[in-house]
Specification:
This protein is α+β, with helices and mostly antiparallel strands. A hairpin with a 2-residue loop joins strand 4 and strand 5. It is globular. Keywords: ATP-binding, Cell membrane, Membrane, Nucleotide-binding, Transport.
């Protein structure tokens, strides 16, 4: 296992980057704790895979260093970094059996035959492929091949880190849940440093100890799932995490009050925001409908089982509220009230705290 330090790291695919938009990965300084499980979460094209490939050694950064346990590995090839990486699409040897595929990383390093057999059997059980161990990989389904690829990544116990690049894309939904559970069990048993790239918030929030949210080549927040939900540091985090995501409205903020299109919204603290674009954000879980708050029109109601989503219109801006089961659907003249303590204030997309400019 290893502590992984990213020191002044940045990358551009252009030979002579000029403006900020030329950098696929903006400058980053971060420490991945030894033995922790992280998820790299963000939309397609935000820089997740670029960062993972730099950590693994498949890509050399334009600037900065990567350190494993304080040793500089920036110039080392992938093999010298002692990591295992699982890619989005399966990488297997079709002419080998499932057993031979799983054993290959251990045989390649001269492991003892008895240990290899025991370890392969354990991994086969983990990925639910005990009955196919002696079948050739050729002809197996795409999700079966991806399970083999996943198993090969997990078969070694001595790696510095396990890196997963959207490894469950081709896996059926039920098996995705099972494999995420097994990955967490593997982490708890062996304490590997794990980094799991995904654009799926459910995968990220159920797998990781900490989630690293990326947007436009930049890390915008690192935190536990609870921290990302309760205190989004950036409007993208609020929007991207949650279903539906955070409601955001342009506002003027002074003291304990925000003014939104001439209407007052109470806040949970006193603010003195600096100049810039000011917005308030509140999650749909903290919006209630009644006779106080912003005047809204209910455009539709969506029943999603445990609750209903009220889609609202406020002077051309879309808002969402969650209605518990049994609460009647409001009629005309309804207003949306925000729970003051759950309202965040953002300046130029970054969260500010009460009383801090």
């Amino acid at each position: 296992m290893a502590k992984i330090t990213l020191d002044n790291l940045a990358h551009s695919y252009l030979p002579a980057p000029k403006g900020e938009e030329d950098w696929a990965l903006k400058e980053l300084n971060h420490v991945w704790g030894d033995g922790e499980a992280y998820a790299l979460l963000g939309a397609s094209g935000c820089g997740k895979s670029t960062l993972l490939n730099i950590i693994s050694g498949l890509l050399h950064p334009s600037q900065g260093r990567i350190l494993f346990n304080d040793a500089d590995v920036t110039g080392q090839p992938t093999a010298a970094r002692n990591i295992a990486q699982v890619f989005q699409f399966p990488v297997v040897y079709d002419t080998m059996t499932v057993r031979e595929n799983l054993a290959f990383p251990l045989k390649n390093r001269g492991a003892e035959a008895g240990y290899i057999a025991t370890r392969v059997q354990a991994i086969a059980q983990m990925i639910d492929m005990e009955d196919t161990l002696d079948r050739k990989a050729r002809g197996l389904t795409a999700d079966a091949k991806q399970k083999i690829s996943l198993g090969r990544g997990m078969v070694r116990e001595d790696v510095n880190a396990l890196l997963f690049d959207e490894p469950l894309t081709v896996i059926d939904p039920h098996m995705k849940w099972e494999l995420r559970t097994q990955l967490k069990a593997l982490h708890h048993e062996f304490g590997h440093t794990m980094i799991y790239v995904t654009h799926d918030q459910t995968e990220a929030l159920t797998f990781a100890d900490k989630v690293v949210v990326m947007h436009d080549g930049r890390v915008v927040q690192v935190g536990t799932p609870e921290e990302l939900f309760e205190r989004p540091a950036h409007t993208f985090v609020g929007y991207f995490i949650g279903s539906p995501g955070m409601n955001l409205l342009d506002a003027e903020v002074a003291g304990k009050v925000a003014r939104v299109a001439g209407h007052e919204v109470p806040l949970g603290g006193a603010y003195d925001p600096p100049g810039g674009r000011v917005q308030i954000g509140v999650r749909p879980e903290f919006v209630s409908l009644g006779d106080a708050g912003l005047p809204v029109t209910v455009t539709r109601i969506e029943d999603v089982g445990r609750h209903r989503i009220a889609r609202l219109d406020f002077e051309g801006s879309a808002l969402n509220a969650l209605l518990p089961e049994g609460v009647p659907v409001p009629g005309d003249g309804v207003r949306a009230r925000f729970e003051p303590g759950a309202v965040s204030v953002y300046v130029d997309d970054w969260r500010v705290t009460p009383g801090v400019a």
